[in-house]
Structures are given as structure tokens and as C-alpha cells.
Design goal:
The complex is a heterodimer of chains A (396) and B (116). By secondary structure, chain A is of the alpha/beta class. Chain A contains 14 helices and 14 strands. In chain A, strands 10-11-9-8-12-13-14 form a seven-stranded parallel beta sheet, sandwiched between helices. A four-stranded parallel beta sheet of chain A has the order 4-3-5-6, sandwiched between helices. In chain A, strands 2-1-7 form a three-stranded antiparallel beta sheet, with no helix packed on it. With 116 residues, chain B is an all-beta fold. The chains are: A alpha/beta (396), B mainly beta (116).
């Protein structure tokens, strides 16, 4: 493995340049800046809202200074509420190259696209000059998510990814599982795995909060395709999702933007705090992926039964296909065929080790299927959070 | 018949099914099962009356209304109707004990439904 050393001591497994729009009105201009460089590691991220949101600012600060990111270009319309000076200052303090373009001041679409592309071209040369340094598994942060789950997800891909987590944690990597709204019914068991009783109580509280949130909204984190795939209830889906966490003790509870202070297993609580506001907290899988990446995840393990094709900006996504029929239909999009377990062609442990080795290979530069196909999905929506309590993080 | 020993007990269960924990009252189909397939479950023959897709659940034994559905040793909801051994267990005969499951049939204004 090798990584790109950043000023804060973290290392990146990719060295991308992000172009971030700070309101939807700047989205097209930012996309046009990226277009000619899409194959050269220039990626589009951003926030569509015009009105200020502390979570969105924290997210873009974390994402623009993520270890996989080598520099950032900010694209503003000019009249939006986003704290662009604060964001630029954070990126400058991280010693990354950063520039900001305001469309209204630069003189419109054409001139801003031109100026943006000129800056990107200049930075790409200096990014390419950065020499990677050796990197160890204990410097890795790995996130996991399931999307397009069916009745096979919890039998094959999720337990195999849990096995990979256990192998990574044995090497002192930090591993993050997520979506308390998809762990409904598992809270009591999770609490018994917490390294302190106080953390166990925080974990139960986070699931109770998720149930309240989803009840208010009218339905849980359960899509029509989940039922077609044989899952009947949210707690059944949870049971399968929970298998992603493996068997290691739970070291901490994070919220978006919290970086694990050391190796171990962490639960990411991505359900907003306080009154139910802004609608659904996780409107799709990429919202959850962005939250995982904001916690410093270098790479994402994504299990799918129905067959999701998404990737992500910033961090490579490894697609683990749970369902053997889906794998045969969508092999071009899938990195791992975990459905072999269902057909007796492999064991959970064997697929777990395969995923573990693939994580190290991808961290070493091997491209995932979704990376090769150009998937760079990104979405950021309104949320609001209180900081985690003192019992949530392990003492380093 | 291609059979394997289920880890939970000595009586064989058809390879096309998976029982995840000994206390489970449902098992999971590992393949598409056409209607009227005969399977051996816990050593006894059992007829799957409806077609059941990969990943879906089948009752291992008769389940009474209100009884907890157990999969992987964990409650995943409760029965809303009498369920016969070998019957498909899904939205038509069980429900969540936490948050109702939303399907396309629940769209406001939808007329029809499954008659449940």
C-alpha cells in the first residue's frame, strides 16, 4: 500500500482535485469546469441549498480536506448564503491549493468556466508531482453501506463484509458501519458490544432517535425493491444490515464529520438531532456514502442484492453483490460475487478474506468497477446535528 | 434428492432452503421455487404451494396469527394470519412490530390491493 501524505498526518489512497459548487445556481458552471478533466481525477461535489446550514458547511470542510483530496476549487454564484470564506480558510489551513470563483464577479458562465479550467490545469501538474509514501492498514478508514438490499444481502454479502471488517480491525484499521434507521431492533445487542456501558446507552439512544424520526415521517428506511427481494419488515432488513458490522467490539459512536480517533469499529449516527426538520435524513444511498466519507473513510464497501451501480466522488466504492442471479446479470458493475455462498461455491469466511484483500489492493491503487465506469455520484442535503457526547468516543 | 444436514438439528433439509438458526420458524429460499414444489424440511416432506423467489421466506411449521416470526434467532415481526407449513411468509401474512412497511400499493388513491 502507498498513500499521499497530507499536512495533518493522514494519508490518502487517491489524489483527486474537487470542484465544489456552493449553491445549485453554480452547479452547471462547476460541472463544465470538471468535464474535460473527468478522467484525470477531477471530481464534482457541492451543496444545492441557497440558505445557510451548519452541517453542509462542516461536510464540505471535511470533504475538501479529506485525505484522498489534493486540492479544491470553490464555485459560487455570489448571492448564496454558504460560508465560502470559512470553507476556503479551512482548506488553506490544511495547506492544500484552493481557489474560489464567484460567477457574478467573474462575468458569467463562459468566463468562469474558462478561469476554472485554467486553474484546474495548473493544479493537475502539481498534483501529479506528489510522490506517494508507504501506508499501513492501521492508517485506513473503511466505511460500509448496503443499498438495494434483498433477502440474500443479510445471508452472503453483509456477513462477508463483516468478516472483512474483523480482519481490518485486527490490523488496527478504523471501520465504520452506519444507518441507525436500518438497525432498528438490533439496538440491545449492539449495546452489549460497546466497549463501555455509557457508550452502549448512547447507541440505544441513537436507535430510539431514529425510530422517532422515521415514525414522524411516516415510513422507515425500506424501499419497494426490498420487499420484492423477500424482505418483509424493517427489523428483518436491520438484521441483515447489522451483519455488516462483524463481531468486533464497538469502540465509538460518530456523527457526520467526526473522524475516528484510533482503529476499531464505529457506528455512524446519521439521523439528525432535535425536531424532525428538512424531510428524509437519507434520501438515497449516496447521502449515506457522503456522510461516511466525511468521517475520513478512504474506501466504501457497498453490498447490494437487487443490484446498485453507484460509486462516489472522493472515495472508491467496492461493490459486493449478494445475489448470484443479480451478479450474473450485472457482472460489469460488481467487484465481488458473494452470491457464491448461497450456491455452495464459497464460504462466508472465504469471501470475507477476498473482500479484505481487495480493500488493500484498492488502497494500493487498483481501480474498482465503479471507478472504471466513471461513477462519481455525490449528494449533500440539509441536516442538523448536535456534537456527540463525551461517552461516544474512545480515549486515545 | 440433493440434501444437506442442517447445522441446527440432525434431520436433513433440502439444499434449496437455508435455515439460519435452530429456533427459527421460517427458512429462506436459495433459488426460485415453482409452485407445488415438494421439499424436505427437517426430515419431513412439505409442499410449497405458491412460487417463491430467491431470498424469500417459507414457514417451517404452522404459525398462528399474532405469533412472532423468528429468523436468524431474532424476531422480525409478527403473523397477521394463520400460516401453514410451506407457505410463503411475506407482506400478506406478517407485519413489522416497529414501523409499517410501505409498498407501492400503499400510494394514496390506490384502488385494488392484495385483499389483505
Amino acid at each position: 500500500m502507498r498513500g499521499f501524505l497530507r499536512a495533518d498526518g493522514r494519508k490518502g489512497i487517491r489524489n483527486v482535485l474537487v470542484v465544489a459548487y456552493l449553491v445549485e445556481c453554480a452547479h452547471h458552471v462547476a460541472r463544465e469546469i470538471v468535464a474535460p478533466y473527468r478522467e484525470q481525477g477531477v471530481q464534482l461535489i457541492g451543496f444545492p441549498g441557497c440558505y445557510p446550514n451548519a452541517y453542509a458547511v462542516r461536510m464540505l470542510k471535511r470533504l475538501c480536506t479529506h485525505p484522498n483530496v489534493g486540492g479544491a476549487l470553490l464555485v459560487s454564484l455570489g448571492c448564496e448564503g454558504f460560508d465560502k470564506r470559512g470553507l476556503q480558510k479551512t482548506i488553506e489551513e490544511s495547506t492544500r491549493p484552493v481557489a474560489s470563483l464567484t460567477i457574478q464577479e467573474t462575468g458569467g458562465t463562459r468566463k468562469t468556466v474558462q478561469a476554472g479550467r485554467a486553474w484546474v490545469a495548473e493544479q493537475l501538474a502539481s498534483l501529479a508531482a506528489l510522490t506517494p509514501v508507504p501506508m499501513e492498514p492501521n492508517e485506513l478508514v473503511v466505511g460500509t453501506i448496503c443499498g438495494g438490499s434483498d433477502g440474500t444481502s443479510g445471508l452472503t454479502a453483509n456477513p462477508a463484509m463483516g468478516g472483512a471488517f474483523d480482519l481490518l480491525i485486527a490490523k488496527h484499521a478504523a471501520c465504520i458501519f452506519e444507518e441507525t434507521g436500518e438497525l432498528v431492533g438490533c439496538e440491545a445487542h449492539m449495546a452489549t458490544r460497546a466497549i463501555t456501558p455509557a457508550l452502549g446507552r448512547e447507541i440505544i439512544h441513537s436507535v430510539v432517535k431514529a425510530v422517532r424520526y422515521y415514525r414522524t415521517l411516516g415510513h422507515g428506511s425500506f424501499a419497494v425493491g426490498n420487499a420484492e427481494g423477500g424482505l418483509t419488515t424493517l427489523e428483518e432488513k436491520s438484521l441483515g444490515a447489522y451483519a455488516k458490522s462483524g463481531a468486533s467490539p464497538i469502540s465509538g459512536l460518530l456523527k457526520p464529520g467526526d473522524v475516528p480517533p484510533r482503529g476499531g469499529l464505529y457506528l455512524l449516527d446519521m439521523i439528525p438531532d432535535g425536531d424532525v426538520r428538512f424531510g428524509f435524513p437519507n434520501i438515497n444511498d449516496n447521502v449515506e456514502i457522503a456522510d461516511l466519507i466525511s468521517c475520513g473513510a478512504h474506501v466504501i464497501l457497498f453490498s447490494t442484492g437487487r443490484g446498485s451501480v453507484v460509486g462516489s466522488a472522493i472515495a472508491p466504492v467496492i461493490k459486493v453483490c449478494a445475489n448470484p442471479e443479480t451478479y450474473r446479470r450485472m457482472e460489469d458493475d460488481m467487484d465481488v460475487d458473494a452470491g457464491r455462498i448461497l450456491e455452495g461455491r464459497a464460504t462466508v469466511d472465504e469471501v470475507g478474506r477476498e473482500i479484505y484483500e481487495l480493500v488493500l489492493a484498492v488502497a494500493g491503487g487498483q481501480r474498482t468497477k465503479s471507478e472504471v465506469l466513471g461513477h462519481q455520484e455525490f449528494i449533500l442535503t440539509y441536516k442538523s446535528f448536535q456534537p456527540v457526547g463525551p461517552a461516544c468516543l474512545p480515549v486515545t | 434428492m440433493d440434501q444437506r444436514k442442517d447445522p441446527s438439528h440432525d434431520r436433513p433439509t433440502d439444499r434449496r432452503l437455508m435455515t439460519l438458526a435452530p429456533e427459527d420458524n421460517v427458512c429462506v429460499s436459495c433459488t426460485h421455487l415453482p409452485a407445488d414444489t415438494t421439499l424436505v424440511v427437517d426430515g419431513a416432506p412439505l409442499i410449497v404451494s405458491q412460487a417463491v423467489n430467491l431470498g424469500h421466506k417459507i414457514a417451517r411449521r404452522a404459525i398462528a396469527p399474532g405469533e412472532t416470526i423468528v429468523k436468524c434467532g431474532v424476531p422480525i415481526g409478527s403473523a397477521t394470519a394463520p400460516i401453514a407449513a410451506g407457505e410463503h411468509v411475506h407482506l400478506h401474512n406478517m407485519k413489522s412490530d416497529y414501523i409499517p412497511t410501505y409498498t407501492l400499493d400503499d400510494e394514496p388513491g390506490y384502488v385494488g390491493g392484495r385483499g389483505v
